[in-house]
Design the sequence.
């Protein structure tokens, strides 16, 4: 037969199914978090509420940043698609790269930028692929095809080199 209650000088104490006393109100230091040794644990309830609000706030900030980045990307993509496809004579006036990442074991990402100057003096900087970037040199002239901020193609003007006749190459 299992023991389910014990009578003592402090009153009747019940035992749960695991053999642990349920009612510890009569034991010094276990006054139901109203005083004694464990009285400071009531502060954890307010800290728990603060932690929940803080973590929820961080989550909302991260979610907001993600939504902003998505909306910004869709807006740029949409405006590029709505822009006219232009082919204009231009000159390569500057080239630059931007490298990000690459610390530790992670790989680096390189973005290639080329600044073109049109015959009317206006300039635009476009992100180009590495294969196009490598084929352009500053002061190259040619026909630039682009749509909004999206680079499409650059066809370099072929300039005959002075002192070289047709079919001859430098050795």
Sequence:
């Amino acid at each position: 037969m299992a023991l389910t209650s014990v009578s003592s000088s402090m009153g009747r104490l019940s035992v749960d199914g695991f053999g642990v006393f349920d009612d510890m109100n009569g034991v010094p230091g276990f006054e139901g978090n109203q005083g004694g040794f464990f009285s400071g644990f009531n502060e954890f309830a307010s800290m728990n509420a603060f932690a929940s609000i803080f973590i929820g706030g961080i989550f909302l900030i991260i979610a907001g940043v993600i939504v902003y980045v998505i909306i910004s990307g869709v807006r740029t993509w949409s405006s590029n698609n709505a822009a006219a496809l232009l082919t204009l004579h231009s000159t390569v006036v500057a080239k630059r790269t931007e490298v990000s990442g690459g610390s530790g074991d992670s790989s680096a990402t390189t973005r290639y930028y080329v600044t073109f100057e049109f015959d009317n003096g206006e300039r635009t900087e476009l992100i180009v692929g590495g294969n196009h970037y490598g084929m352009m040199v500053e002061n190259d002239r040619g026909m630039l095809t682009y749509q909004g901020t999206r680079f499409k193609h650059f066809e370099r003007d072929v300039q005959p080199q002075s002192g070289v006749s047709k079919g001859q190459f430098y050795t």
